[in-house]
Amino acid sequence: MWSSDAFSSGTLTLEDLASYNATVTDAWDFHLGEYQMYIPPPPAGGIILSLILNILKGYGLKSESLTGQQKILAYHRYAEAFKFVSGLKKHIRDPNFMFLNALYFSQMVRKFIEDSFADHIRSLISSDKARDPQHYNISSYLESMGTSHVSVLAEDGSAVSVTSTINHIFGSGVFSPRTGVILNNELCDFCGRVDDIYPGNQINMTFCFCPSAFVVLAGEQPPSSMAPAVLKSQSKMLVIGSSGGDMITTGIASTLMNHLWFGKSLKDAIDTPVIYSPLLFSLQNVIAALKYMRHNRTAAEDFYNVVNAVEKEDGCICAVSDARKEGQASGY
Q1: For residue 236, how far is the Cα from the chain centroid?
Q2: The domain defined by 27-324 carries CATH number 3.60.20.40
Q3: Is there a binding annotation on residue 167?
Q4: How many CA atoms within 13 Å lie on the side-chain side of 217?
Q5: Bridge-partner residues for 39, per DSSP?
Q6: Strand 174-175 to 35-39 pairing
Q7: Does the predicted model carry a pTM greater than 0.85?
Q8: What is the pLDDT of residues 177-221, one digit of tens each?
Q9: What is the per-residue pLDDT across 264-300, written as a single tens digit (0 to 9) for each?
């Protein structure tokens, strides 16, 4: 059944399917306050999430940061951090295919989770205004929205955070009529990649790697925003992840910022309106102030990002699924 559909108008072969092997890699981890946070390594989006959080944690955010002018400054810095991190996405690729620069690439991507790199980017963020796009060296990316996520905490204490995707909505828009399987279009994640650096780039490129020519190799996994994560401390565990394509890392970072630093409950943290670059927070006073600081605001017609999380603290379990897409948590 499958072969007659999949091979009728493509280059896929039975040998391709027979020789495919799933790659099992160890999670990367870094300190985030009292937690040890575990994230998937490149080419997944874990290091993007870690960099956003490391930049923000240097500002010492707390519940008082949501009062008065501190609130405007907090969201301004939040938006600026996302812009800088977006500018670095193009440097992430499958480490298994960095044959000529494997050691250098490994050292470079490890810097994404180091405090020193976050300190460097934080030093480039102005506290009183946003800048033009070339300042952040932001690359264009096609947004992918065909993603789902589930966070699980079992009674034996094990935790699983899983994100799966067929990339865009309904993947390639092609399905196998015999099997009903919708085919993905994951190769689109290679689109929009650029090799050159914007003139006047402000990022210190000693931290980064830019290949002289970007060539997609057979078997290479495309870069992804998927960032399922587990946070563990002496007495707490938080399992979190999100769907939403390019919005994944900002959605998770927003939830963690609101929960861990602003002191909101897990439900309130997930329910809080999410800021994306260049999309901005919906409260009118915040929007007006950020516009004054030269941020551009565009209202999203659709909402695709969905954060799901489950947390255990002192024997109590709290599970929350994003209600903006009719999500509900379940217990068994």
Answers
A1: 23
A2: yes
A3: yes
A4: 10
A5: 28
A6: unpaired
A7: no
A8: 877 788 888 877 776 554 433 333 343 433 333 344 456 677 778
A9: 999 999 999 887 754 333 356 667 777 777 787 776 6
Q: Is 16 annotated as a binding residue?
A: no
Q: Using CA atoms, how far apart are residues 10 and 8, in angstroms rounded to an integer?
A: 6
Task: Give residue for tokens 């810095």.
Answer: 77
Distance CA 144, CA 170 (A): 10
Do the annotations mark residue 244 as ligand-binding?
no
How far is the C-alpha of 78 from the C-alpha of 277, rounded, in Å?
9
Closest to 54 in 3D by CA, of 85, 76, 83:
85
- Is 156 annotated as ligand-binding? no
**Rg over CA atoms, the chain:** 20
Residues noted as catalytic: 147
Residue 239 is given by DSSP the state E
Within the chain, where are the H helices?
2-6, 14-18, 46-57, 68-86, 102-110, 115-123, 248-256, 266-271, 284-292
DSSP output for 20-86: ------PPEEEEETTEEEEEPPTTSTHHHHHHHHHHHHTTT--GGGGSHHHHHHHHHHHHHHHHHHH
